[in-house]
Amino acid sequence: MSKVLVPLAQGCEELEAVTIIDILVRGGVEVVTASLDDNTIITASRGVQLVAQKTLDEVIDDHYDLVVLPGGLPGADYLQADPRIIAKLKNTVEMGGLAAAICAAPKVLVSAGLLDGKQATSYPGVIEKQPAHDMQFSNESVVEDGQIITSRGPGTAMDFALHLLQKLQGADVRQTVEAGLVRA
To answer: Can you list the GO cellular component terms from the UniProt entry (predicted)?
Structure first.
């Protein structure tokens, strides 16, 4: 079974966080949500309260197939400022895993050096202002370049989450989950 870490920072984008978590769980992925500090009650960017399962310190040393960052502000700023997140992203990729981010969170991947020489996307204006070295910006909804997957924002969260599910569990699982969502 694939295992995924979703760090939840205060001020994260709730639609993105919940969509990522929900789609992956529906597809049989083990999802671990973790707060950055001892407060496991997260007040998201629109005031919705989310509850993290653990603190980051409790799960930081565990192995994950994917670390995925919801965006939103100031959530993405808190993720970017946390050296544990930067180190975990780098380590996950070095160990053959995936790193993914949506909306404002791809700037965390820039800080980790994971978008150098990559094609990526983000919420408009986020990573174009401070791009990674030799990064190519795309306006696509979801961009995969090697072990890195990025997406644009709340409106692309479903496509992003389904892409992550397919990457982890295969096309058949994605199709089954997507059919159950009645998207068309």
So the answer is: cytoplasm
